[in-house]
Amino acid sequence: MIDSMRPFFRPAASLAAAILALAVLLALLVLSRVPAVDLVPVAQTDALSRTRSILRNSVPDARRQIVRKTVALTTDDMATITQYAFARKRWLGGAQFSIRGPRLRMQATAKLPWRWADLYLNVRLIADDAEPFPVVRQLKVGRLAVPHPLIGWLLEILLQSKSVSRYRRIAADVVQEVRVVDGRLRVHFDWTRKALDQAGDWETDVALRERLVIYQQCLSEVVSRPEIKKYVRLSTLMQPLFALAQARSLVDHEPVEENRAVILLLNAYVNGRDVSPIGDVSSAEPLVPRRLALLNRRVDTAQHFVISAALVVSGTRTLADVAAMAKEINDIHSGSGFSFTDLAADTAGATFGKFAVHSPEAARNLQKRLSQSADESLFMPPIKDLPEHMLTDEFERRFGSIESAAFDEVRREIEARIAALAIYRF
Known about the structure:
It contains 14 helices and eleven strands. By secondary structure, the chain is an alpha+beta fold.
């Protein structure tokens, strides 16, 4: 059998070698050890702020009937948008644009995310004004000049990628014309209601990322204090973050969104997830030093509290309640057993999240109280006396089931303790 196949081995091996050689040659032509433009760290609030402003100016007010819009982008605007695209991918990169007469030139560089080598992808594009869309005259990737017949094919592949396709579908419906005129890239939109809704989601996403970057910087400063070692109280994290939220709310008049960002960031940090909303890929060190947050001197209580709050501000209050109860029921039969202390932390966290985003008035009230004190009793009632670590036999002996009067009595006591806290009254 092997002997009969032997005549096919040599051509197959030759073909594989040829493909490998072609791939290596292509990499040598496309990749470079030197960036064509200066690289800009991606975690920049000014880039996010400018991108958000461009989006706001591009999208008409949904409350009005105007659906036509024209936006003139400067070369700086285009560089900012490109920088934001790098940020979304967590790439270190940079871009430069220039316009002379009817010609647009772009040079962009992205550092490949390989630790073992400093390699860059340099792209150069030249496009001339035409009606209704500019015509790409030259596309160069590294040292490889893409033949003109293949330019459209390559751009089509890029637009079909998962990260770009959803934007392309909207753009295909609403972008009517793009012209290079008077030193600007003028984009003419014809908005539909569906497209307006999706564009609103994009603006919200950019705004949230902008806030997360700002609060991330504040969080890093707090946990980097010399007196904070391995552990830090949750209230110690909350006080400066909500003080900053209070100050920012005076400027942007969006206290609900400020609180939402703080809680989402706290949840990521306390539960050990990635807290970099954009990420500074230029550094191998973590942006925020890792510390273990404590509530009632316990790590798990802090984790229960913030994850329930985050679920609520994400619009899933019912899920928060169900998830909390489901976990405790599961713990009856395995793990640490049923704990009313965990259930209390879940309930308090859900209540905290509810009041944090209930209304602008409630949001500001929460900010005011938390910014004035790092006392955790402001938002968390005493729970040390509550039963916990009950496995099946003990739970059934004391409470029977979660539908029993005895169980309901403890749950109502927990809710009463939380309701008695002044922070949840306004």
